[in-house]
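quick one, two chains, predict together pls
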Amino acid sequence: MAEVEQAAYESALNAPLDGEECACPSAAEPKAETDQGEDLWVDRYAPCSFLELLGHEEINREVVRWLKTWDKCVFGEDKHRPGPKPHKAAAGKGPATKQGADVRPPQKILLLCGAPGLGKTTLAHVVARHCGYRTVEINASDERTAATLQARISDAVQMQSVLGAGRPNCVIIDEIDGATGGSEGRGAIQALIKLVQAGGGKRDASRSGATEEAEEHSEADDRQGKRRKKGAQPLCRPLIAICNDLYAPALRPLRAVAKIVHYKKPTVDRLSSRLRFICSSEGLSIDRPALTTLCERMEHDVRSCLNTLQFLSKRTRSIRSSHVSGVQCAQKDIVKSAFGIWQDLFTDKVPAGPQSSSRAGGGFERLYSALGDFGDHQLVLAGLQENFPAARYLDSHMARTAAVADALADGDRLLRAVHRRSDFAALKFAPAHALAVRAIVAGPQRVQMRWPSSQADVHRRTVAHRALLQGWLTDVHPTVFSTLSSATAVREVLPALVRVVNRAVRPVAPHLFTAEERGAMAAMVDLLLAHGLTLSLSAAPATAHHPQPAHADLPETTALSPTVHTLVLFPGVPHGGKVMPLTIRQMVVQQLQLEAIRRREAVFMDNAVGEASVSAPPEDAPGHGLSSSQGAEEGGSQRPPSGEKRYQLTVAQRAKEAAGAGAKKAGPVRKASWLDALRQKSERAGQHRPKPSKAEEAQDAAAGKTVQSVRYKFHEGFTNAVKRPVRMKDLM
Amino acid sequence: MLWVDKYRPRTLDDLIIHQDLGESLKKLVSTGDCPHLLFYGPPGAGKKTLIIGLLREIYGSAVEKIKVETKPWKIELPSRKLEIELTTVQSNYHVELNPSDVGNQDRYVVQEVIKDMCKNRPLELKGHRGYKVLLLNEVDRLSREAQHSLRRTMEKYSATCRLIFSCSNVSKVIDPLRSRCLCVRVPGPTGMEIQQVLQHVAQREEVQLPDALCQRIVQMSDRNLRRALLTLETCRVTQYPFTDAQPVQLPDWEMYIQEIAAFILQEQSPKRLYELSRKLDDELRHTTIELAAFYEHRLQEGQKAIYHLEAFVAKFMSEYKSWSIAVLG
């Protein structure tokens, strides 16, 4: 075996120099090896030089280019020829650590991803040898915990093989996504990343004290001192990781630091010509359709193509396409991506012809099992639902579209039934609905697919709306709340509320209001307060609170402050209501705050009295159940703080009190202060509040007494005024 | 407050409609004991009003002192711990809650929370009944499991606790529950009754309500008293004094559905169906309500509404198109 290996190295070495001859060793090799008896064709005909590689030329070149960026680090500055001279690099790990600047490439690890059997591992090995490295492979069969992985990699990076003719090592970590699930695997990936990032920026700064620093580092991280020391060495050999699924969760951190190369399927031409070459060298006759069918069935998987061929060669020496399609065991079991599934469902490549029926039948079965393997039937249905209007099919009466929609609905019913009854055996029928859709919509042309996002989108919006609604409902006054369910709130109350709030009030000073307007204002305040709402005061009411475009096209209306109005307005539907001007909104909000304070005050008084007479719980929401001193402070903070205003209010109060006696005699005064109206209103509102009437009377009496007992003085123009707590009620 | 709240009858004596129901409920209470009750009827028929009146009849005006409380319940299951947030309205004598709000976990609410509430005997206040009332809204939205676990709770704690259910669709309440309750059907008010109430409210508000307008409000209200009253108030705010020809405002979502229907009639094609589904999905919640009447059954069997709505619209489009081709050629 050692000889064979040596021969392989030889050929790899020669490859770049004499590319034309490269076909010769590989052609010669199988003959040499057939003597050794049966081995797998896959191994026998594995490419051993760069030019023999099957995959796309540019991908192969990209890998080589990346590996070449290491040359400066691994082989030193004085490397001119593309073909490396291994003996020159015998110094091994020398150059990079000794030089001042970090000559290593920015991406220190290559992540090669692609479907199984396309030749990723072969590519990695061939390219590494091609560039003058000795390959060290770590695959899923090895133990790959964080510690062992780290140890093995650092060994491989720092040591040098005696056998390897002085070549530096290149580590290939195969199947990195396979065995790296779970916490252990994550640890391994973490270790790998630490290794890759070790000796980054900070080593550049103080290159001389590298070892000390490493020791310090290890001392800081108490345990595993030795291993740490190794790990802290900068990585100075290329690392190639190979995976099938680039988006495996465990690989997420690795994706950020690695150079990612997607390995694509080889083309049918290249694959089949290679297969034909192999067949001819094995003395096997195979016709072109058989080869094409084989490639298609194996999804261009080189390895399984070869295995199947070898298997067939045991039965017959001349292979026809009937043999290939008859092979059951060769069916490849891979899970397709969602887009692949949808694409298969929407496209029907089978041309109309005599043999189409048989092949379509096979396609049907394959799709059925592919859908079954895919598993996420919800996703399949969602993708069909969102994409089928883009498909082109003949449909004059919409009957076929209706059939498609019905099939989708049936699929949904099936899934629902499965989940409700936990009858998962019935899931095997789920692909039937998708295939029923396919029977109608599938056509030869490609359909531009989109990821079905609308359902998730709707779900998200529903959740947001529901949260908004629930948040608002908890603020609603208890008596109103108890009669509202969320459904009736949205369906019946809110549409009306949005309109009822807009009372007709002229934008004039409050004392110029007519009696009707005063009533309207009071009604508005009462309505808003009962429903726990305020008006939004921003200039552009519809858009300010919701900068998202989703709300921009809503019809304009008076914005409420938990933005519940957005729940009942629809873009494009004309909204009958008016928009309240900003000045009036400001007025309403001010009144609202005053009224809220007043009511709270009333509740405190109620409590103070209530403690003496009835031991009833506070009627208001629990958040409002503050002690009276706190309440006074809070009331004070909510009032407009300017001294001038306070003064005016007090004056108005005095004037009103003075005028009070006269006004009662003269009957209703037309130009009475609006405060008056509100005050009367609040008293009325107090009566509406559900309370035992006796307690209320007692409370009123008590309140009256307290009002009389408090006196205050107003020191005009005197800064060192005596400060003392005053009830808000007295000031308003 | 909205008129609908302002003029809600507070006692069983104040009822304008369903007076017969009020009478029988009063008789029921006067006998001293009260069975479990199940009120069912369409929305806006007056279930809640009757229940509030009944509570007041049982406990007197003190039951109107209510507070809203949202508190998290910690429930320990054998395998895990759950935390459920639930909003309740409670007085000293009754607790009202909406267990279907918590979705799939409503079973635990029934098992733990309600049991917890039922276990505590109310303090014996002078002259009051020896039982609490637990009011559950929207029982038809409860899951099967939750309803089943209610069965035992009802029997076990019947000494200290009466349950009052309210729902709009009684067929979704399982039979064992129905048989444990006295079922009270609250029918939607007739047109005449709604008219009577509207005139009553208008009179109290000192508003002149012309008969023609009243008729039209009744017509669009769908025998839903709440909706009729809200519409009346909307009309009052939009235009007063009333005229006979005054437009009656529909709720926005119904207008939206009308627009969708018009949209369907304009053109029938798969592309249009796609645009429609864009339009639909935003307000699925609302549109479902209207369309469910036609595709209700399918919808109940399925998981995601959009498939069934789309199937319905597609079916309709197909029918409409073949019809128009047949007629117009």
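Chain A touches chain B through 80 residues (CB under 8 Å).
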